[in-house]
Design goal:
The protein has two domains: 90 residues, Pseudouridine synthase, CATH 3.30.2350.10; 133 residues, Pseudouridine synthase (2-Layer Sandwich). Helices cover 24% and strands 33% of the residues. The protein starts with 10 loop residues before the first strand and ends in a 6-residue tail after the last helix.
Length: 242
């Protein structure tokens, strides 16, 4: 009796990434749980961040570049008055400053100045490579080097609430935009500094957080259940021929 070859599993899986985990950690856990070697993701989320993580399984890894290049939507919180070396809550506090008596209107007006096309300098604590070395490795040694600004576009930067020193917001932007750098820059423009204290990706291209399943729930599934959740490649990227 001959053994049948294992069935090839392929498609796009939408995961709601938990906080405190890298995007690669999610790849590892899915690979281990379902014994599927060919898994990747389309667009990294920092460990602190939660939300839409587009996982690519099997042949779907071939559409990675297409899905990475789509626009993103985030919701998050900025804490004014505290600067960190990573521009987010994971870093070390470098400076604290008093927050002036800002009004909601003043903060909203300053947020509007971020809209449109612009160049953004990647933070030192990032995976951008210079001379083959990721910037974060240099940053951990206390080094600061010149970074080439990158072109980004911010389509929306809306205040959801403001209770000083906390601003909650919604941001729609192109790929490669560092939301923590937006948080830092807003703090500087307001004269008191600031950092990104929480972040949730709610949209990636046409995919939304409502379509995602928490990683913990996915890990309770058997493979046939997982397959029912997979979006076929042709639906995820109809204009890309494999």
């Amino acid at each position: 009796m001959s053994m049948r070859p294992p069935k090839l599993v392929e498609g796009v899986l939408l995961v709601d990434k938990p906080t405190g985990m890298t995007s690669h950690d999610v790849v590892y856990r899915l690979r281990r749980k379902f014994q599927i070697q060919r898994i990747g993701h389309a667009g990294t989320l920092d460990p602190m961040a939660t939300g839409v993580l587009v996982m690519l399984i099997g042949k779907a890894t071939k559409i990675s570049q297409y899905l990475i290049s789509v626009d993103k939507v985030y919701e998050g919180e900025i804490t004014l008055g505290v600067n960190t070396n990573s521009q987010d809550a994971e870093g070390e506090v470098m400076e604290t400053r008093p927050v002036p008596p800002l009004t909601r209107e003043q903060v909203t007006a300053m947020m509007q100045t971020f809209l449109g096309d612009q160049y953004q300098r990647p933070p030192m604590f990032s995976a951008v490579k210079i001379g083959g070395v990721p910037l974060y490795k240099l940053a951990r040694k206390g080094e600061e080097i010149e970074r080439e600004p990158r072109f980004v576009r911010i389509a929306a930067f809306e205040m959801l609430s403001f209770e000083s020193p906390k601003i909650t917001f919604r941001l729609a932007c192109t790929k490669g935009t560092y939301v923590r750098t937006v948080a830092y820059d807003l703090g500087e423009k307001l004269g008191c500094g600031g950092h990104l204290s929480s972040l949730r990706r709610t949209g990636s291209g046409k995919f939304t957080i409502e379509q995602c399943l928490p990683l913990a729930e996915i890990e309770t599934m058997a493979l046939p259940e997982l397959e029912k959740r997979l979006i076929p490649v042709i639906d995820a990227a109809p204009s890309v021929a494999l």
